[in-house]
Amino acid sequence: MKTIPEIRQALALAVDEMKAASGKISETKTLLTKADEAGKEAAAAAVTVAEKAYADAKAKAEEIKAELDRALESEKLAADGAVLRTSPEGTLNNVPAEAKNDADRELVKMAPVRRMMAGMIEQHTGGQIRAAQFIELAYGPSQLAVIKATHQLSDYATGGALSLPDFAATIIEGLENMTVVRRMQPQVLSVPGALIIPKETSAPSGSWMGENDAPTPGQFTFGDIRLDPKRLAVEVVISRRLLDNAARGGAAVRSLEAFVVRRLRERIAVNEDIGFLRGAGTEYVPLGIRSQIASGNIKAIAGTTAANIETDLRSRVTELEEANIMIQAGYWLMPPRTRAYLADLRDANGNKIYPSVDGNNTLLGYPILQTNQVPTNLGGGTETEIMFGNGPSIIVANGTDAEVRVSIEGSYQSGSAHYSLIQRNEMLIHMELYADVKLERGEAFSVLTGVTY
């Protein structure tokens, strides 16, 4: 007996055959209109064959659709009569009825994650484990009350995919500790669509004057900052054996939560930083901070001696100060190899020149953020860059609500290959968000190029 996912896959293939046959009808009819007298008979026959192929494909799809409807109806009846499985004694630890301490409050905060896990388990077990009952048993009545009050628990027993924008919000909240740009204390705005923010590019200078003197008229000039969030999609594939274990005990569910959250945050952090730091600014990719830096703030290294390095690094900070940038939260951005080199750099007596790098992860008094998203293969293939900037001068625009979709059916693409989730016993978690990044002023960042250390 075929399972519901297998029937759905067969239906998808039948629909593809219908589409192909429909295209063939259009193709043969076009040839018929262009055929000369000698070729009309063959062209007409080809049209007839194509129409029959379409009719056969349609009949097959309708038959499979009827089979799917019957299977779904049977599944629903079975789910309605299902009884919650009993769990071995001691495998589940109930939480207190009320969240009175930090640990319990953390459980309440993770309510969207609880809901996602419970929904997947219900879907995976064909309704034998109900989402509401499982949450109450594994996490306590307080968690069930929180989820019921804020999120609608739906019936996922019929399979398919579930969409969770609330779970996506939980993922986004943790990015501040993983991404480089978001750790620089930027301004974060919620921008549902494209937004233009006016900015002052120059203003008249003030002056001291006598009691009855008139101020000298000045002139303001203005520009604008355009925020246009771009789409970033991330997918994670994990084994459904985790769900099998999760269905047997609350501890496994909590482990699965941590695994899913960590994997999504890691992948989003890497991809977001790639776009935010060095994006090409195309139709679908943000313009990275590196391309927004004022040309006067870009400087090549003077050399690789300790004295050269000291002068170069200090000039990057001075560049911002001389442009009247109030450095409220300055940060260095560099690849790991450069940070390691500066940490080990010594004077003629063998003393470390920058002991603070290893001591408290600072350089010239400002924190270091190391990232592999600053390339080390620039120039001749071995060069990199060191960036310094004022974090609050960055504007991060979060677009429409991020969303997570989970599926245990269908297939996914890796390169040119396609893989079946059912055949590989896997689960696909797809997340997408919209974001953009802009500098308030190009002078708020400086960069040192041609760095070979």
Structural topology:
Elements: H1 4-34, H2 40-80, H3 102-109, H4 111-124, H5 131-139, H6 141-150, E1 161-164, H7 165-173, E2 187-190, E3 195-202, E4 221-227, E5 230-239, H8 241-246, H9 250-278, H10 289-292, E6 298-300, H11 306-322, E7 330-334, H12 336-344, H13 356-360, E8 362-363, E9 366-370, E10 384-390, E11 394-398, E12 403-407, E13 411-414, E14 417-420, H14 421-424, E15 426-439, E16 445-451
Parallel strand pairs: 2-11, 6-16, 7-9
Antiparallel strand pairs: 1-12, 3-4, 5-15, 7-10, 8-9, 10-16, 11-15, 12-15, 13-14
Helix pairs in contact: 1-2, 4-5, 5-6
Put the structure in a nutshell.
This protein is an alpha+beta fold and 453 residues long. The chain is built from 14 helices and 16 strands.
CATH architectural label of the largest domain: 2-Layer Sandwich
Question: Rg, please?
Answer: 30 Å
Largest sheet: 6 strands, mixed
- Amino- and carboxy-terminal Cα gap: 64 Å
Structural class: alpha+beta
Order of helices and strands: HHHHHHEHEEEEHHHEHEHHEEEEEEEHEE
Estimated share of beta-strand residues: 15-25%
> What is the CATH top level name of the largest domain?
Alpha Beta
CATH superfamily of the largest domain: Major capsid protein gp5
Mean pLDDT: 80
Helix percent reads 40-55%
Count the domains: 3
Number of strands: 16
Uncertain ranges:
82-100, 155-161
Bulk shape: extended
**How many helical elements?**
14
The CATH topology of the largest domain comes to Major capsid protein gp5 fold
